[in-house]
Amino acid sequence: MNEVQNANIGTRFPEVNAQSLANTDESIPDSARGKVTLITVAFLRESQPQLDSWLEPFTEQYGGKVGLGFV
């Protein structure tokens, strides 16, 4: 079976500094260091239902597992 090579594997995620909707300062990838992380980005507070559609199932499935997180 032929495996597809992905040039992005091993590439460092670019640094992004921002304030969350919860008014916390976040720095990605530092906030996610050492964890498998679901990163969601909302540009408007009204976007929260779309983020929740990803976040709620992720939290239910993986919320209690060590080494997993979300930003």
Relevant terms:
20% strand; alpha+beta; two-stranded antiparallel ribbon; two-stranded parallel ribbon; 71 residues; 21% helix
Describe the protein in words.
It is a single chain. The protein has one domain (16-70). The protein has one helix at residues 48-62, and strands spanning 16-19, 25-28, 36-38, 68-70. The strands form two sheets. It has a two-stranded antiparallel sheet. The chain has a two-stranded parallel sheet with strand order 3-4. It contains one helix and four strands. It is globular, with a radius of gyration of 14 Å. With 71 residues, the protein is of the alpha+beta class.
Give me the Rg, rounded: 14 Å
What is the rounded distance between the termini? 36 Å
- Write out the strand line-up for the largest beta sheet, numbering strands in chain order: 1-2
Shape designation: globular
Taking pLDDT < 50 over at least 5 consecutive residues as the criterion, the unreliable ranges are none
Tell me what portion of residues adopts beta-strand conformation: 15-25%
Order of SSEs:
EEEHE
Tally of DSSP helical segments: 1
Query: Can you give the helix content as a percent range?
Result: 10-25%
Instruction: Give the structural class.
Output: alpha+beta
Question: How many extended strands?
Answer: 4
Structural domain count? 1
Outline the biggest β-sheet: 2 strands, antiparallel
| Integer average pLDDT | 80
Sequence-ordered SSE layout with sheet pairings:
Blueprint: E1 16-19, E2 25-28, E3 36-38, H1 48-62, E4 68-70
Parallel strand pairs: 3-4
Antiparallel strand pairs: 1-2
